[in-house]
Design goal:
30% of the residues lie in helices and 26% in strands. It has 191 residues and is α/β, with parallel strands linked by helices.
């Protein structure tokens, strides 16, 4: 988190970090709960929307998550594989790709913001339900036409890097004497 923080700040981003292994003082309660992550997303979106109303140029927004990812039953039947991709928070509650799209992607798209980000976690391939996915191994772009929210985002200035496909697992690696997300490390190495 610290390495990515420095890289983003040096490029003009304002950064709010939520560290998943932190606990509230005097307790054993994780501070990165579903509620705190959603609150941080809502604050990020509100600040970006406010900035977009005050400026002529595009407002650049970065969102990243490096932690645990999972899949869960697709309650609204909009996924081809019948599974939603989800972030797994410190309180073991999830935030689904549907929720990320509705609370992060759609409002920033509507505000005209430029959204970039990374999901460095397992099952992150379509983790924010974008209109298309690029597979670097096959060099192919797949349209995610089975998802009405993704199709509606076509034309948005949104791009995300995922650690793996929906069906794969990501990895932490011990690099430079510290554990870190392998995809985040690789991303920082090419900046």
């Amino acid at each position: 988190a610290q390495n990515l923080h420095h890289a983003l700040v040096s490029r003009g981003y304002t950064v709010t970090k939520l560290i998943d292994n932190a606990v509230a003082p005097g307790t054993s309660t994780a501070t990165v709960t579903r509620a705190t992550v959603l609150q941080a997303i809502d604050s990020l979106v509100a600040e970006a929307q406010h900035a977009a109303r005050r400026t002529d140029g595009p407002v650049r927004v970065w969102f990243s998550f490096s932690g645990h990812g999972t899949q869960c039953r697709d309650a609204n039947h909009d996924e081809r594989d019948c599974l939603d991709e989800a972030l797994l928070c410190g309180d073991l509650r999830t935030i689904t790709d549907d929720e990320l799209h509705a609370r992060l992607v759609r409002p920033l798209q509507q505000a005209g913001c430029q959204l970039r980000g990374m999901l460095d976690c397992c099952h992150s391939g379509t983790g924010v339900d974008l209109a298309a996915s690029y597979d670097g191994q096959t060099n192919k772009i797949t349209l995610n036409t089975g998802d009405s929210r993704a199709a509606a985002a076509t034309g948005a200035d949104v791009g995300f890097i995922s650690a793996c496909t929906d069906a794969q697992t990501g990895a932490d690696a011990f690099i430079n004497k510290e554990y870190q997300g392998a995809a985040t490390h690789a991303f920082l190495a090419v900046l």
